[in-house]
Amino acid sequence: MDDLFGRVEQPGIRVAGVDEAGRGPLAGPVFAAAVILDDSRVIDGLNDSKKLVATRREELAQLIRERALAWCIASAGVDEIDRLNILGATMLAMRRACEGLQPAAQQVLVDGNQVPPGLACTAQYVIGGDARVPAISAASILAKTARDAYCLGMHRRFPDYGFDQHKGYATALHLERLRALGPCAEHRRSFAPVKRCFHGEPVTEPYLL
């Protein structure tokens, strides 16, 4: 597999794909997953999780857990997001996912334009990798399904916010509930619409990270 820089992943070694889910939402942890696929147990239909319907994501997530050589899902919590900022917390979650692989990866390919520091093996980023590299696609699917499941748990704990519908993203519904109810324990205090709640400022405009 060639990446955008013309380099080729090294043959015969364990290559992990890494991706995250949940950088943009106003609430809940950011999740990351790392996956080492087994070439002898092919999984058809892997793709960027955002391009798959929810039922297909769940089907593929089960196959990944059953057929991958190794996989690990990790997260960084709201307190870590607020302390480190969302980029730092995302890198932390990715590193935790890589460190949880058994057997360990010998090379890591990360979706995006940065790699987490402190990995025990070589790593490089692949822009658009969640649609181009099957192992990154698999990681994208595991991270997304894990975070969606967490959001359903948030909904059970805080049903008035509608987390089952917007998954923490800054939709009109979420902003309306945030304005009416104020933040709950799962809201990221460092994100602007949440921060404004503590200063009595309006929380009505669209928000993009």
UniProtKB/TrEMBL annotation:
<dbReference type="GO" id="GO:0004523">
    <property type="term" value="F:RNA-DNA hybrid ribonuclease activity"/>
</dbReference>
<keyword id="KW-0540">Nuclease</keyword>
<comment type="similarity">
    <text>Belongs to the RNase HII family.</text>
</comment>
<feature type="binding site">
    <location>
        <position position="20"/>
    </location>
    <ligand>
        <name>a divalent metal cation</name>
    </ligand>
</feature>
<keyword id="KW-0963">Cytoplasm</keyword>
<dbReference type="InterPro" id="IPR001352">
    <property type="entry name" value="RNase_HII/HIII"/>
</dbReference>
<keyword id="KW-0464">Manganese</keyword>
<feature type="binding site">
    <location>
        <position position="19"/>
    </location>
    <ligand>
        <name>a divalent metal cation</name>
    </ligand>
</feature>
<keyword id="KW-0255">Endonuclease</keyword>
<protein>
    <recommendedName>
        <fullName>Ribonuclease HII</fullName>
        <ecNumber>3.1.26.4</ecNumber>
    </recommendedName>
</protein>
<dbReference type="Pfam" id="PF01351">
    <property type="entry name" value="RNase_HII"/>
</dbReference>
<dbReference type="InterPro" id="IPR012337">
    <property type="entry name" value="RNaseH-like_sf"/>
</dbReference>
<keyword id="KW-0378">Hydrolase</keyword>
<feature type="domain" description="RNase H type-2">
    <location>
        <begin position="13"/>
        <end position="203"/>
    </location>
</feature>
<keyword id="KW-0479">Metal-binding</keyword>
<dbReference type="InterPro" id="IPR022898">
    <property type="entry name" value="RNase_HII"/>
</dbReference>
<dbReference type="InterPro" id="IPR036397">
    <property type="entry name" value="RNaseH_sf"/>
</dbReference>
<comment type="function">
    <text>Endonuclease that specifically degrades the RNA of RNA-DNA hybrids.</text>
</comment>
<dbReference type="InterPro" id="IPR024567">
    <property type="entry name" value="RNase_HII/HIII_dom"/>
</dbReference>
<feature type="binding site">
    <location>
        <position position="111"/>
    </location>
    <ligand>
        <name>a divalent metal cation</name>
    </ligand>
</feature>
